[in-house]
Design a protein that fits this description.
With 205 residues, this protein is an alpha+beta fold. The chain is 56% helix and 19% strand.
């Protein structure tokens, strides 16, 4: 019976299988690399898109912050404008009051008193003057206390330093504001009487 040698055929088959394995391994490696590259491109595109959205959001936030600052500045300007309007309104209401106050001052000055100076600070009046006697000053303070536009008279001091034997004095008094105005109204400017043009009643010193 003849004998057949199968070794060359088996070697060829082994080599062929090895080549097929290497080809399959190379194909799988190439496919894995291709999939990894495609995944990298996809994630890179997603990252770039998210970055663009983030940049757009930052720009919108910056624009909104600027609008908020403008709104805040407008609100501040509005409050300042309202405050100025309130001051103007109070000053307009106080204009007729100051006329009444000075008319009332003339009425409260008794005979024998000569006012040398009048100064107003907010709602406080300061009266400097000369009197023939302390009794005249007391009468002046009583007139202030019973006045409709002046109240709370306070005598700071009285001294025999006036002219012609008269006594100099200083009296403070508060202005009575109207009921509609619950807050004090600052005077536009201090009002000071002159030495030679003060309010005078009675006998000249």
């Amino acid at each position: 019976m003849p004998r057949i040698n199968l070794l060359p055929w088996r070697d060829e088959q082994r080599k062929e299988r090895k080549v097929q394995f290497l080809i399959a391994l190379g194909g799988a490696t190439l496919t894995a690399l291709l999939l990894a590259f495609l995944g990298y491109l996809m994630f890179s595109s997603m990252i770039d898109g998210q970055q663009r959205r983030n940049d757009r959001l930052r720009a919108e936030i910056k624009s909104l912050d600027k609008q908020i600052e403008e709104i805040n500045s407008l609100e501040t300007a509005k409050q300042h404008f309202i405050a100025r309007m309130d001051i103007i309104e109070k000053l307009q209401r106080s204009r007729p009051e100051i006329v009444h106050v000075f008319d009332e001052i003339v009425k409260t000055v008794p005979d024998g008193i000569y006012l040398t100076g009048i100064k107003q600070t907010d709602q406080k009046f300061k009266f400097d003057g000369e009197a023939q006697s302390a009794t005249r000053v007391s009468a002046f303070m009583r007139n202030i206390d019973s006045s409709e536009w002046l109240t709370k008279p306070e005598l700071q001091g009285i001294a025999a330093e006036g002219t012609g034997g008269n006594s100099s004095f200083t009296v403070f008094a508060d202005e009575v504001t109207s009921a509609a105005d619950s807050t004090p109204v600052a005077a536009p400017s201090p009002r000071t009487g002159a030495k030679n043009g003060g309010v005078r009643r009675g006998v000249a010193p």
